[in-house]
Design brief:
It is a single chain. This protein is an alpha+beta fold. Helix content is 42%, strand content 16%. The strands form two sheets. Strands 1-2 form a two-stranded antiparallel ribbon. The chain has a two-stranded parallel sheet with strand order 3-4. β1 and β2 form a beta hairpin. The radius of gyration is 12 Å and the shape is globular. The two termini are 24 Å apart. The mean pLDDT is 86.
């Protein structure tokens, strides 16, 4: 099951604590390939101009914030 997410400038950021995200990764079954993204604000901005990048970020197993702007948005 994919984690819950919130919308940050059209990118669906995973709404997970560090401990929950760690548990999800360690508990992943590896029955199918998947990936984790760590976009910072510049990648989020670029994704709004690049549909392929936006699709990649929004369909990951986890998309976790990498930087203060997205971390702050996660707390709202």
């Amino acid at each position: 099951m994919k984690p819950s997410r919130f919308n940050f400038l059209n990118v669906q950021i995973s709404a997970e604590s560090l401990s929950t995200a760690t548990s999800k990764v360690l508990g992943y079954s590896f029955q199918k390939p998947d990936y984790i993204c760590f976009p910072d604000a510049s990648v989020v901005k670029a994704a709004n101009d690049d549909p392929l990048l936006l699709n990649i970020l929004n369909h990951s197993f986890l998309t976790l914030p990498d930087g203060k702007p997205s971390q702050l948005a996660a707390k709202l």
